[in-house]
Specification:
The chain is α/β, with parallel strands linked by helices. It contains eleven helices and eleven strands. The chain has a domain of 200 residues: 3-Layer(aba) Sandwich (Rossmann fold), CATH 3.40.50. Helix 3 crosses helix 4, helix 5 runs antiparallel to helix 6 and helix 5 crosses helix 9. The two termini are 30 Å apart.
């Protein structure tokens, strides 16, 4: 583990453990304004293109309400899920004295799969699992990376006013992410999903959130879903990048945890789901209802 952040909170409240997604680190929860994305090369703001965004997450919300709050930077954020599960196991063991009232797992993206795999160990101290944009049925985007780079040539013809270098640089950032080893593990039908149990733990509350706004990556004025519509036959466009069907990386259908007590979709993209006030307020209400 590279870095751990912990706030002790008040006695009698469950320990809230925050699990980040692939390629991210502790900053996405604690200091999102400082978080880096796309291989750690770009600030989070690159995904919001000048929009005014409240840089706060449910980590802040629960900490301010007296919950013990714990998060860490995974040592291999784009590595195997099982490596992150081992880290989570060690982390829980190190802070178990703060879990006398149980634990809550709040998970973004791949973090939800890390939590589910951890729970196969049967830890009955986990009172709630909340997943935000987690690919419970996988994501098909790794299959579509081959379409993206050739689209740069098309863009040069469509948008003549943009310099070729700028377009290719943006496309390269996206391709590097879409072809990463960690993302391939998330393909539907991967060995990880073949081994993942589809069952809930007794006395644990499950809540899943999904997004329906795919406008997460943008090459100048053209979004990824608009680019997909230009270069992929309509019937083949993956739901992850279709408006109303995905958050840019995960489809709304895949974000549904099949045995969740409740699921909610919001019109946000894959990173907005962490910062959106409506999402956060609903999350806090459901957590406080567990007390």
């Amino acid at each position: 583990m590279k870095e751990t952040v912990f706030y002790p909170g008040r006695k009698g409240r469950p320990l809230a453990v925050f699990i980040h997604g692939m390629g991210l680190d502790v900053r996405i929860w604690r200091t999102p304004a400082e978080a880096r994305v796309l291989g750690g090369k770009y600030p989070l703001s690159v995904l919001f293109r000048g929009e005014t965004v409240e840089m706060a997450t449910s980590f802040d919300d629960l900490r301010e309400r007296g919950f013990p709050a714990l998060t860490w930077s995974q040592g291999r954020p784009a590595g195997p899920i099982l490596a992150a599960v081992e880290e989570l196991t060690a982390l829980v063991r190190a802070y178990e004295r703060y879990a006398e009232a149980g634990m809550l797992f709040i998970c973004h993206s791949r973090g939800g799969l890390i939590a589910r795999k951890y729970l196969e160990s049967g830890d009955d101290r986990v009172r709630g699992v909340i997943t935000l944009g987690s690919p419970h049925r996988g994501t098909t985007l790794a299959r579509w990376a081959g379409y993206v780079y050739p689209a740069a040539l098309l863009l040069n013809r469509i948008i003549e006013s943009y310099r070729r270098r700028e377009v290719l640089s943006a496309v390269q950032r996206i391709c590097q992410f879409l072809t990463s080893t960690g993302l391939k593990e998330l393909l539907p039908g991967s060995s990880f999903f073949a081994d993942l149990k589809e069952e809930r733990q007794r006395n644990t509350f499950y809540l899943s959130f999904g997004g329906t706004n795919p406008d997460i990556f943008r090459i100048k004025s053209l979004s990824l879903h608009e680019l997909a519509a230009r270069v992929i036959p309509g019937r083949l466009i993956p739901d992850e990048v279709r408006v109303g069907y995905g958050d840019g990386l995960v489809s709304a259908a895949s974000s549904v945890l099949s045995y969740a007590d409740e699921h909610r979709d919001f019109h946000v993209h894959h990173v907005q789901i962490l910062l959106d006030r409506e999402v956060r307020e609903h999350l806090v209400r459901r957590v406080e209802a567990l007390l």
